[in-house]
């Protein structure tokens, strides 16, 4: 599996992936928000719980009818749909369900025992309640790539520690590779929705990079926000 593989290589039988004048959507386009796909799949019931729609079959059915308005790799625009399709491609390449892959490659090696798409009754009892009221404690398997991961502050720190060095921990040997910058801003004709907490200077694999400025160090952050996983257990 390569970053420059076209998404169509991992599409379900009979599915169609749109292109732009012969230029395909690649896996690296999905991972850098440069796929030319919309933020969310159009349609769906109003006021539905988040992270429960569309299902894998629904998004591939929609994709088979979609058209692109720009060339993949020419603009950056935040897309949850792209990351769900990327998760589907990873699952196909691995020959196993994405939640199993997620556990084998991320949560189990890092000891993230409270990070899941399918919370247990005990975990649902510990779900953090926002000021506006409790949210449904649903399984979020429909949004396996773009979000819906239940977790705790402790588990999130375990995940972030691999990118940091200290007297007690050593930065992961894979960290530099995971934080590789793919697109500099000046390589893109437009950058849409990436500047909320500050100007996005470059895009990586799920990361936005902000250059050092006014005495502040360079910063890797989630696109369109300053932090990642949500919601959080209390």
From TrEMBL:
Enzyme Commission identifier(s): 3.4.-.-
Keywords: Hydrolase
Chain ranges of the Beta-lactamase-related domain: 2-220
Keyword Hydrolase on entry: yes
Coiled-coil features, chain-numbered ranges: none
InterPro entries in UniProt: Beta-lactam-related, Beta-lactam/transpept-like, Beta-lactamase-like_AB/R
Entry annotated with the keyword Ribonucleoprotein: no
Pfam families to which the protein is assigned, alphabetical: Beta-lactamase (PF00144)
GO molecular function: hydrolase activity
Family statement: Belongs to the beta-lactamase family.
Protein's name according to its UniProt entry: Penicillin-binding protein AmpH
């Amino acid at each position: 599996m390569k970053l420059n593989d076209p998404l169509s290589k991992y599409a379900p039988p009979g599915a169609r992936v749109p292109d732009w004048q012969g230029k395909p959507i690649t896996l690296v386009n999905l991972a850098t928000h440069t796929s030319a796909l919309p933020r969310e799949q159009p349609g769906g019931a109003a006021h539905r719980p988040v992270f429960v729609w569309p299902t894998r079959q629904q998004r591939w059915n929609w994709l088979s009818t979609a058209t692109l308005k720009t060339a993949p790799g020419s603009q950056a625009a935040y897309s949850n749909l792209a990351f769900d399709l990327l998760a589907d491609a990873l699952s196909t390449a691995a020959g196993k369900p994405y939640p199993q892959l997620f556990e084998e490659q991320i949560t189990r090696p890092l000891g993230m025992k409270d990070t899941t798409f399918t919370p247990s009754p005990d975990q649902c009892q510990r779900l953090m309640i926002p000021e506006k009221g409790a949210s449904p404690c649903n399984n979020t398997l429909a949004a396996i790539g773009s979000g819906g991961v239940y977790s705790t502050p402790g588990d999130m720190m375990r995940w972030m520690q691999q990118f940091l060095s200290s007297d007690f921990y050593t930065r992961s040997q894979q960290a530099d590779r995971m934080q590789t910058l793919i697109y500099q801003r000046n390589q893109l004709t437009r950058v849409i929705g990436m500047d909320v907490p500050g100007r996005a200077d470059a895009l990586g694999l799920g990361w936005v990079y902000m250059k050092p400025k006014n005495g502040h160090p360079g910063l890797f952050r989630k696109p369109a926000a300053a932090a990642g996983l949500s919601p959080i257990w209390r």
